[in-house]
Amino acid sequence: MNRAECSVPGRFIKNSDELGVTEQRRLILGAAEHGLRRVYPCNTVPEALKSLRGILGDRPVYVAGLGKAAYTMAQAVLSTIPERVEAGLVVTPRGFPSSPGPIEVYHSDHPLPSQRSVEAAEKLIEFLQAVPPGAALLFLVSGGGSALVEKPCTGSIEEIAELTRELMKRGTSIYELNTVRSLLSCTKAGGLLSYTRVDTLVNLVMSDVVGDDLCYIASGPTVPWCKPGLAEAENILKRYGLDKYIPLLRKAAEKRPAPRRDIHVESKIVARNRDVLEAARDYLVLMRYRAIVLTSRVRGEARQVAGLVAGIAEELGRREAVLLGGETTVTVRGRGVGGRNQELCLAILGATTSLGEEPGYTALCMGTDGVDGVSPVAGAVIDNIVAREAARKGLSITRYLNDNDSYGFFLAIRSIVDTGGYTGINVNDIVIILR
């Protein structure tokens, strides 16, 4: 028996003792912890597997996967059906441990694809081709997989990495980014189905995409109905001034193999952004707060979203809380270090007129995956303490925003949210505000 130990971490936010210097901060950190525990794979995957017993049948199970949650999802599978798993291979970012039981772990690169991503695709394809036709294939999908696994249909991995970097710098949405990436790749948008002989595949999916569209979560590598449009992708490149890549896009689109249609694919989302928000809300309600989830579909440029969020925060009454989730974007113009969550929190701070006064609100902005943009932390906390400390140190919010150096700002104020790296979860970003 290849049973793996699957337990929820005792604490996700490693610096919570340092951060939790007020009651409001302790409450907001407690709410975030409660939400993260709710969606951790140990708590979500077993129930999903139970509901899929009829589809998996009594056949041997082979496990494959990719993404920031692939390792923890694999652990959960091995702790639930250890006697069924014959072999497996999951591709994760660097930083995760080595193989859990019979499931091999291959470490690749993120957020930009590299030669390591090509090697990961080759290993994954080799594994899929070796799975016996009569077996059940369980595929674990989570965000981050688009960069971790890549097989270019044409051109070099360096060209794809360069285009990916330029699209990210220009603040493209995940829908725009993955539409372009899917057309360039032979492993995305159902592409991996071409390399397996099984007649049944089950996707367990942790969603990091607003709206939970399977074609955009890790670019839908095992979803047969995904059809990235060439005209749409060309318009995206034109919109962001990247016309020079259109010939590459057209050539790749001609060479993309059609995904298999003679395969039964069943997909089940095991966790999504709203799940973490509702669990965090429930915690605050237990703490005698009037708390509501406003939306799990926040999107748009972080600095533009910040004005609305600041207005909501300023109107909160005593012991009221609002929770939001989704994914903002950042157009990078400076040379600093940061991410969309820290940029959002810094822009909220800059848009607020009341912080520094009493009573004030406390807000947390963090990525549930634990890594915000190109920074080593998950996000930040803002409140009266941060506003006063910034004023005392003479830190210009405008200057830090203009340089996209939100991490530098919050590091100087000592209000970063540090999870110690990847959490093993990826359900987008959360914002919690309370007074």
What does this structure look like?
Helices cover 40% and strands 19% of the residues. It is α/β, with parallel strands linked by helices and 435 residues long. The chain folds into 2 domains: 186 residues, 3-Layer(aba) Sandwich (glycerate kinase, domain 1), CATH 3.40.1480.10; 231 residues, Glycerate kinase, MOFRL-like N-terminal domain (Rossmann fold), CATH 3.40.50. The strands form 2 sheets. The protein has a 6-stranded parallel β-sheet with strand order 3-2-1-4-5-6, with helices on both faces. Strands 7-8-12-9-10-11 form a 6-stranded mixed β-sheet, with helices on both faces. Helix 3 crosses helix 5 and helix 14 packs across helix 17. The chain is globular. The N and C termini lie far apart (51 Å). The mean pLDDT is 95.
Question: Summed up, what is this model?
Answer:
The protein is of the alpha/beta class and 435 residues long. The protein contains 17 helices and 12 strands. The chain folds into 2 domains: 186 residues, glycerate kinase, domain 1 (3-Layer(aba) Sandwich), CATH 3.40.1480.10; 231 residues, Rossmann fold.
Helix content: 40-55%
CATH superfamily descriptor of the largest domain: Glycerate kinase, MOFRL-like N-terminal domain
- What CATH architecture of the largest domain would you give? 3-Layer(aba) Sandwich
CATH class of the largest domain: Alpha Beta
Mean pLDDT: 95
Q: What structural category do the secondary elements indicate? A: alpha/beta
Shape: globular
The end-to-end distance, rounded to whole angstroms, is: 51 Å
Largest sheet: 6 strands, parallel
Number of helices: 17
Q: Tell me the series of helices and strands, N- to C-terminal.
A: HHHHEHEEHEHHHEHHEHEHEHEEHHHEE
Radius of gyration, CA atoms, in whole angstroms? 22 Å
Tell me the total number of β-strands: 12
**Total domain modules:** 2
- In the predicted model, the low-confidence regions spanning at least 5 consecutive residues are none
How are the strands of the biggest sheet laid out side by side? 3-2-1-4-5-6
Strand content: 15-25%
Q: What fold name goes in the CATH topology slot of the largest domain?
A: Rossmann fold
